Amino acid sequence: MAKRALILVDLQNDFCPGGALEVAHGDEVVEVANRVQKRFELVVATQDWHPADHGSFAANHPGAEPYQVIDLHGLPQVLWPVHCVQDSDGARFHADLDTARIAKVFPKGTDPTVDSYSGFHDNGRRKSTGLGEWLRAQGVDTVYVLGLATDYCVKFTALDAVTDGFATYLLEDGCRGVELHAGDSEAAIDEMRGAGVTILDSGSIGS
Ligand SMILES: [Zn+2]
Question: pTM for the full model?
Fold first, then answer.
């Protein structure tokens, strides 16, 4: 019998409308997250959790602009507006998110020298956040993913889940994309599907 977990990716104020790195309609997925949680015995969350001197912030690179791509210690890095700084309001979960059933929160992006889109590993796969090991220790072999944003942290979390050997499902209506370029979310969905992620609507897992 498969043991399933739900992974809520970065449901934080800064990724919702009005936030520092807002995702259009990002707040709409909170309702989906709250609704589907009761279908799962185990719920975990990731939280983008940067120190103020994080290398992904354009503000920390004199002369650079947000959304420019630079080389950050050997990895291509999109520079972002300052967002999800540890202990800031922007880093907190959306106020409407039901957090009572979240068994464990996995902070990511805590190392100033490397970004971490995935909830499992940093972008260089140099360090683990502990998420994969923790899920395995609970006997989990199947994960369902939703959250923000489709074309970055959701995508890389789902791809890492597949790489790490989890049967992986994406709840597409529980995700919204940054869409730096039009079509990025659709391309991300295609990439996930191609890697072996099963794409579902939250309605298909019951309510
Ligand atoms: Zn970030």
Answer: 0.97
Number of domain units in the chain: 1
CA–centroid distance, 7 to ligand 1, in Å, is: 17
The domain containing residue 147 runs over which residues? 4-51+82-205
CATH code for position 39:
3.40.50.850
Instruction: Let me know: does 4 contact 40? Beta carbons within 8 Å.
Output: yes
Instruction: Evaluate whether 27 touches 19 at the Cβ level (below 8 Å).
Output: no
Tens of pLDDT, residues 135-175 = 999 999 999 999 999 999 999 999 999 999 999 999 999 99
Tell whether 69 is covered by a domain. Answer: no
C-alpha 196: how far from chain center: 18
Active-site residue, 153 included: yes
CA 9 / ligand 1 centre spacing (Å)? 12
What is the Å distance from ligand 1's center to 116 Cα?
7
Catalytic-role residue among 16, 84, 153, 175? 153
Domain membership of residue 103 (yes or no) is yes
